[in-house]
């Protein structure tokens, strides 16, 4: 943290006065990043206990309105005290960037503790997982404090096509902290809501197609959807083993990279493993960035609109930073790619879900449901309890009754692979692109995640502006498998050049 940091300056003046009031702590922690918090820990201006207490207070205050958190960890203060003790003893483990930092996990990421893991559904309330999810093991090793579980679209939006995004039986409808009526997008809704509203600094979400990138964009935060397989999915309630990925959702690119480092396997003693090495303000020079205007800029044709002006300015900014923009590119099969049923994506999900969810439920130590058929029966019996009767469970039922699933899956996956190779992947290679850039909001631009989904490619979204109603929208950088370093350079360079994000306003 620089000597000009507002956090350091205010803390220093407070210490001169000889006291640190609760009001001042709240002011300082609001919007604080890991780069603010760790120096405050080191200088003994803040403890992990105080930080957890602040977030618990904010959750109590804001969550009844926003419904971004399903439950908090009853052991969070105990874990904070342990982190403080390790830091005081100069334990080597306290050197990690996430040591003593609270984190919220999407409610489909298993924790072997007093927290439930329910995918937002009463059907799994009280179930017992056999072990921590793989990413949670890494977070605990890094010293992160598991603060609680974030709400989510129930069953990652797979229960029914009619289930509103951000709705789950256990918590109800999540709400956007910028414009409460605007919607949350994607299934990692609570992770986005909670970070945006300062109920936590960092969180984890999961994505099958859009569930990290979309809620990050509409909540004005940074989301990283990693290459499938880069982060462990063990212990995560599945949708599609081919496409599921776990990634960070944070307020800054740096914070997101710190979290990604932890869950991928960063070694403090080996700098070559640090994603942070790609956080370079000059990292954009000479990079080739592709622009596909149809359909991703389809609603940006009105020259006078806020979004059009914003993205014209953003593209100019990228040029000024040394990016080579390759504009007006076309993906020949784009209409097939964004057709959820015609591409084969829907059929692939239906065929994959039943064996994947049955395997997950079977390995639970304790559960009232053990199969997809059990889930369907539970929902029929308790739909009034979950307040989900009106939405039904058509997708569950379609997956359960699907015949010839293995053959249909083989055909669907072959088609998805082919159209990805002949579309997005061919475009990137033909034009020697480092990445593709698109807007990202509720409109056609949200299909950017579908380009990346079919074959497990990575993407990062960064805040890009606010429409006339105050609803956030993002900018998305997507690349081929394993290109996270380049995407981090794009995202960080753009973020540092624009500094767009602002705290939520809670407009009705």
UniProtKB/TrEMBL annotation:
It comes from the Eukaryota. Residues 51-487 form the Amidase domain. Pfam families: Amidase. Gene3D superfamilies: Amidase signature (AS) domain. InterPro entries: Amidase_dom, AS_sf. This is Amidase domain-containing protein. It comes from Hevea brasiliensis.
């Amino acid at each position: 943290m620089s000597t000009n940091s507002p956090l350091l300056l205010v803390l220093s003046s407070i210490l001169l006065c000889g006291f640190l009031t609760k009001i001042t702590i709240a002011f300082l922690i609001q919007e604080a990043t890991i780069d603010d918090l760790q120096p405050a820990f080191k200088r003994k201006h803040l403890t992990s206990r105080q930080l957890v207490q602040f977030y618990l207070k904010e959750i109590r205050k804001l969550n009844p309105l926003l419904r971004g958190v399903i439950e908090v960890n009853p052991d969070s203060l105990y874990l904070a005290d342990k982190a403080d003790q390790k830091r005081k003893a100069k334990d080597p483990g306290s050197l990690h960037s996430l040591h003593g930092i609270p984190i919220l996990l999407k409610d489909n990421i298993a924790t072997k503790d007093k927290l439930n893991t329910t995918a937002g559904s009463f059907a799994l309330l009280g179930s017992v997982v056999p072990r921590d999810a793989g990413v949670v093991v890494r977070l605990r090793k890094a010293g992160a404090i598991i603060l609680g579980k974030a709400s989510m679209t129930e069953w990652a939006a797979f229960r029914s096509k009619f289930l509103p995004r951000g709705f789950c039986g256990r918590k109800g409808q999540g709400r956007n902290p910028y414009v409460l009526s605007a919607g949350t997008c994607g299934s990692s809704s609570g992770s986005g809501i909670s970070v945006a509203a300062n109920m936590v600094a960092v969180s984890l979400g999961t994505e099958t197609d859009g569930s990290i990138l979309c809620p990050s964009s509409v909540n004005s935060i940074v989301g990283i959807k990693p290459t499938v397989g880069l982060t462990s999915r063990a212990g995560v309630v599945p949708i599609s083993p081919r496409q599921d990925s776990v990634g960070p959702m944070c307020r800054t690119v740096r914070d997101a990279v710190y979290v990604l480092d932890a869950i991928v396997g960063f070694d403090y003693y080996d700098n070559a493993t640090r994603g942070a090495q790609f956080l370079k303000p000059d990292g954009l020079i000479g990079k080739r960035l592709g622009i596909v205007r149809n359909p991703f800029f389809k609603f940006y044709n009105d020259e006078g609109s806020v979004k059009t002006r914003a993205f014209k300015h953003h593209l100019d900014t990228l040029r000024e930073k040394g990016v080579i923009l390759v504009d007006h590119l076309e993906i020949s099969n784009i209409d097939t790619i964004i057709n959820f049923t015609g591409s084969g994506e829907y059929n692939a999900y239906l065929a994959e879900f039943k064996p994947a969810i049955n395997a997950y439920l079977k390995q639970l130590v304790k559960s009232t449901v053990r199969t997809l058929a059990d889930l369907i029966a539970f929902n029929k019996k308790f739909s009034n309890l979950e307040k989900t009767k009106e939405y039904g469970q058509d997708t569950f039922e379609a997956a359960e009754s699907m015949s010839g699933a293995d053959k249909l899956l083989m055909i669907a996956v072959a088609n998805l692979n082919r159209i990805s190779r002949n579309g997005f992947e061919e475009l990137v290679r033909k034009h020697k692109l480092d990445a593709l850039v698109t807007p990202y909001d509720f409109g056609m631009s949200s299909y950017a995640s579908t380009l990346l989904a079919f074959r497990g490619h990575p993407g990062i979204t960064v805040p890009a502006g606010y429409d006339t109603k105050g609803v956030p929208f993002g900018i998305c950088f997507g690349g081929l498998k394993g290109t996270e370093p380049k995407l981090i350079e794009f995202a960080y360079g753009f973020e540092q050049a624009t500094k767009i994000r602002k705290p939520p306003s809670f407009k009705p």
